[in-house]
Amino acid sequence: MPIPLTVQSSTLQPEAVTDLVKRKYGVGSDIQCVFWRKGMSDSYRITASDRRYFLKVSIAGRRTRHDVEEEVRLLRHLTDGGLRVSELVALRDGSFVLSIAAPGGERHTALYHELDGRPEICGGTSNGTRTGGCAHTRARRYA
Prior knowledge:
The protein is an alpha+beta fold. The protein has helices at residues 14-24, 65-80, 128-140; strands at 31-37, 41-48, 51-58, 88-89, 98-102, 105-113.
């Protein structure tokens, strides 16, 4: 008889992610999804019509819903301050964080627009150091 073991981390099937995005986000119905990367969060690249997105899925037990909500709040603060960061896509209900039940435990997701790769212009330059400095300066005003 096989010995059952618990799961530390699971990878969601792209088909399941496609169905989730179709049901929960207003990004269209012609959606393709590919698993993109595993790390502190799993990333799935979503293509819908002519737009591209990334669904970030936290690893169960690593980040709480509150952690993900605070990340969302910080990114929205930076965007409102004029810094070019990945914009979030709201769920159909207007919220930004969705919790899902997955093997291994509850996971939290957020959908982001893909950035087009143009450098951020901050303080008259486009080098990463100045951009990072602008992000830190704007983040200090985050409360």
